[in-house]
Amino acid sequence: HTGILASGSLQAGSSVTCRVDYDRRRSVAPNHSMTHVLNAALRKVLGDTVEQRGSLCNDEKLRFDFSHKKAMTAKQLRSTEEYCKAAVENAEPVTAAVMPLDEAKEIDGVRAVFGEVYPDPVRVVSVGEETSVEFCGGTHLSNTKEAEAFALVEESAVAKGIRRI
User: What broad class of enzyme is this (predicted)?
Assistant: First the structure.
């Protein structure tokens, strides 16, 4: 989260007023929802050993880091992009539910980011009926069609065994 201190200074225990920047939230939501779709696409194309290692979602782009030992082939990149474009075209519903952490961990196929600590209760975001189910506190679309488009621009290495799209 980011904020702007309009005046004065902050001390521990200071009282503050927060406002949600709904315009920014609306512009970030497509990229955030599509990171969930991209995560699912990578597992489908590269296999279930793929794990999310980080991401960035802002109003201009998404960036997704994942475990994979080698560069993706042109065919793998094309298949990944096609999967994501199909999700946009299919207008898959994006839903969220808050539930006890132990219950959420039992959901078939649920994904969580390795090393993250999740609250109890936890928010679970689902894309479509079979595309993605993940622990997530982020802002999302109501369906993937609202993303309007998807394009893979670049895939590269960021560390040994970690790739970035």
Answer: ligase
Strands annotated E in the chain: 52-57, 62-67, 94-99, 122-127, 132-135, 156-159, 162-164
Dist CA 67 CA 49 (whole Å):
8
Q: pLDDT tens for residues 117-148?
A: 889 999 999 999 889 999 999 999 999 999 99
Burial class (CB in 10 A: 0-12, 13-18, 19+), 132: buried
Q: Over the stretch 15-45, which tens digit does the pLDDT of each residue have?
A: 888 888 899 999 999 999 999 999 999 999 9
- Gap between the Cα atoms of 122 and 99, Å rounded: 6
As given in the structure block, the two tokens for residue 58 are: 């802002």
Torsion of CA 30, 32, 38, 43, to 10 degrees: -150
